[in-house]
Fold these 3 entries.
Entry 1:
Amino acid sequence: MALDYEFGEQGDQLRAVLRELIAERIPRGYLGAFSNDPEDLAIAQRFCKELAAKGLLTLSWPKEFGGQAGTLWDQTVVREEMWAHHEPRGAQYMGLNWVGPAIMEFGTAAQKAAHLPPIAAGERIWCQGFSEPDAGSDLFALSTRALPEGDGWRISGQKIWTSYAEMAEYCFLAAKVPGNHKSAHGGITIFLLPMDREGIEVRPIASMLGPHHLNECFFDSVWASADELLGAPGQGSAIIRRTLSYERVGIARYARCDRLLSLAARALEGEWDTLPAALRARWNRALIKVRTARLLAYRCVAAQARGERASQTMASVARVAVTQCDQEVAETLLQVLGHRGLEAPGPNAPFFGAMEDHWRYAQASTVAAGAIEIQRETVARAVLGRVDGPRPS
Ligand SMILES: Cc1cc2nc3c(=O)[nH]c(=O)nc-3n(C[C@H](O)[C@H](O)[C@H](O)COP(=O)(O)OP(=O)(O)OC[C@H]3O[C@@H](n4cnc5c(N)ncnc54)[C@H](O)[C@@H]3O)c2cc1C
């Protein structure tokens, strides 16, 4: 029985429009917005505005918030085409995938009016201020504090691994507020904070991922007004859980893996038949894993489209599969292409260096947005129930 990945005529048309636009606007060899060349970021910013003008940026958002009321499947096509082509939206994918939806769900009318139009217009970059030096997997151990002062708050603390913080205009920041909060996650609160506010300092972290990916952010008695708080004080853990489940299916990593595997096969041309059989078998196994991960992502999208609670568990299942694909494809391609696969980005490298770029990024993909071990634990708890609970007699 053949597997059918088709999205129907509407999906095909959307895919064709996106591919044509990417071919016209994004230079060959583009490896994303995060390089030392400011033109790469400029390309992403221009591209977002053009997508917005054509109604393609926030396609699946409701019309009242600047979207086209498209389906989650339309949005899936957009995610796939963007990630397969090195995310020409740059950091703005976060605004569309989860910052905007979180503000739609938990924001006041004034917050919606202030934040959603610039995201829908492709004009605003956000960053996510969750992780801290002593709070990553256990996010609820965070120690950044927001203390009430007058009609607002004073925020102090440190965040780490904050992607895109140098270029972001706003931070979706998690801090704890004092008070008698009942739950173990008590007091976590989300603030929508402009990054140019006095007292915020961003320090880049050098890493194998390249520039602009990772930063430390220091908050030294930073003022936040009451209307910069999202939801209610202490509602942050619920908001974070919700936003993380959007984020986990938000990046169609399998789409880039699929494209790189097919580019490699094409690049080898006549050499393919001379590869050891074991290597060709590994390439095939990698492709099967990629297609399986894609199906798991689709199961999650289908559950989300039906509004099912189980979609959060499915998001974790899909993420475990998809991030492992990133690493499996990186290793397989390295073996298949040999030393050529490690050539730094440039016109002479295989696919302009996309292979080397993918290998470096793949190393982090099982950690970013929640480590894979934690995803497995989430799935185990959902499927098996609490492991430390009473045993059935
Ligand atoms: C590329 C990249 C981009 C990122 N961008 C952002 C960002 O923009 N904003 C942001 O806030 N954060 C960001 N992060 C941080 C990321 O969310 C955290 O790194 C991640 O949640 C893990 O936290 P940690 O690094 O503190 O590791 P830890 O929580 O210290 O975990 C270390 C290891 O121990 C394991 N472990 C921990 N607890 C358990 C447990 N209970 N059971 C089993 N194993 C466990 C983990 O799985 C992991 O392998 C980014 C990370 C990366 C790599």
Note: Confidence is low (pLDDT under 50) at residues 389-393.
Entry 2:
Amino acid sequence: MHTMRKSAYKSGVAGKSNALKSAARARRFRRRLLAWYYAHKRDLPWRENRDPYRIWLSEIMLQQTRVAAVVGYYAKFLQRFPSVEKLAAAREESVLAAWSGLGYYRRARMLHAAAKVLVKAHGGIFPNTSEDLKKLPGIGRYTAAAIASIAFAQPVAVVDGNVERVLQRIAGREISGEHLWEEAQAILDPSQPGEFNQAMMELGATVCVPGQPLCHSCPVHSSCATRGPRQSAGKALRLRKREISYMLRRKSGSFFLVQRAKNAKLMPGMWELPELADKQFGKSKALLVLRHSITVTDYRVKVVEDITPEVVLNPSTGKWIQEGRLAQLPLTGLTRKILRSLKML
Ligand code: SF4
């Protein structure tokens, strides 16, 4: 038996939700939501079965990345590392290369570290409770609950951005912190926790969307206190703007790339085009200009070709890489984007 907070677990089993007021309303809500989910759920590759390895991988990839962007990477990653044993035995560089383009590379490093622990300490078998899953590297409260409920039917609720928005609109008020988890647990259908959790997230992702929700197609319309967008008290996030320039050097089918320092705070050990020192590229014409956003910064990225190497930052860490080898290297997302835009990858 896992050791989840007693109050949350109890309220989940009893179905006593503050937003839905009575057990009967909670039951109706669950029935309608699940019927809608079974009829309308998206056909996603990680929903094919309940293999905890596949579910874990999808949950980690989906953190900070949209479903549409994850689908292709997911299939390729599974092809390369079809089991937790194969992932544990891989070199870090290969794991990062397979992750390259998805961004937030710490996720890939933690995934790799957790695979090693799973194989070494658990014989490759996943723990089946959220409490035990949380002990693995890179698995937090949300991910542990998602794996435990979807793969092992443990009655434990998840809270992500989608669930938070749905819960707040249903309740018609701001709910935050631990209260969100308690409310999610109270609404959860303990007999089908994995499907119910996915149904809540699916509703938030496809119907109860940020901005203008599609209330006319909502299966739980009659349970909702808001039926429309809630007025947010928060201010819109302001992106910082920055200009950055890179150099593209190529000769006989090779590109000159540099490796980020192993102890760099961001994307350590990954390969990228050499960055140019500020405004030192003189009159060289930009080969490409694109925009790239990372967390709170909006970059205007210039790529210049054929420029004297002295203006390149850190040329000593650079190497000529054959074009055919690029796909095997852990490239930064921006470098991958640039090479793709130039049809070189
Ligand atoms: S009725 Fe509208 S606001 Fe309420 S849960 Fe459904 S989609 Fe969201």
Note: The longest strand covers residues 240-248.
Entry 3:
Amino acid sequence: MSLLCPLGLVEAVAPVEPVVMSRRSVQSLLEPLARAVPETWESVLVGEWSTEGERYGLGKFVFRSSRTRFKLGIFAGIHGDEPAGVLALCDLVRELEARPGWVSDYELHVYPLLNPTGYEDGTRESRSGRDLNREFWRGSLEPEVALMEGEILREKFDGYVALHSDDTSDGVYGFVRGATLTEHLLRPALAAAERALPVNRGSLIDGFHAVEGLIRSGYPGILGAPPGSKPQPFEIVLESPALAPLGMQRDALVNGVLEILRHYPQMMAFGGEL
Ligand SMILES: [Zn+2]
């Protein structure tokens, strides 16, 4: 197990948990991660707030290439009961450290845990009871959403990749929004994810029409680009099957994100038209 993914965290999110469990510890998740983050990455506190007298924060890890051409935001943990994406972003930073050529075109902003109270409680919603991934660009008063909306407006990403897990799906799948090239990024990402877990090839996934694991519609209010952004960024939501072994979900999600990072500069070299 790498330094980036401390054993304490893995134990905290093991699928077999005692009936009476203490809260998952955000500190045990993020502190070792921040300490172990490679020197080429910067650890940044996006903002803080108080919930029921306790202080919480949103953090990110930033990598800046000396010749940045593209700026991406990569997000996980907005649903507190979906640990695979959180862990996958631990793995991703380590994998990218070993592949400097893959990030030479990028400024990457990696947000490993957007819903720390939900993560502590093991719930999809934050402690306020809200599904934070239905609150974006609707005047939400939730502190996590307000912080991230400000962050997104400041950073103006060229692309968004959000990691999720779905306990009703027996395979990997994804949602595409935004730029027309997006589905040409998701297809190879799903193929790469399939090295770890099968793709869900059903025609109906999560209530949406799907083709080969790709869904072109989605829920309103999800984390992503502000409405009307020009030029349109690409927006991908990658979903792992939540009931599959955690290690395989992590591998599937990391493989998918790496493939997106590998393909995007190639596609843009052709003017984004494939
Ligand atoms: Zn989710």
Note: Residues 246-269 form the longest helix (24 residues).
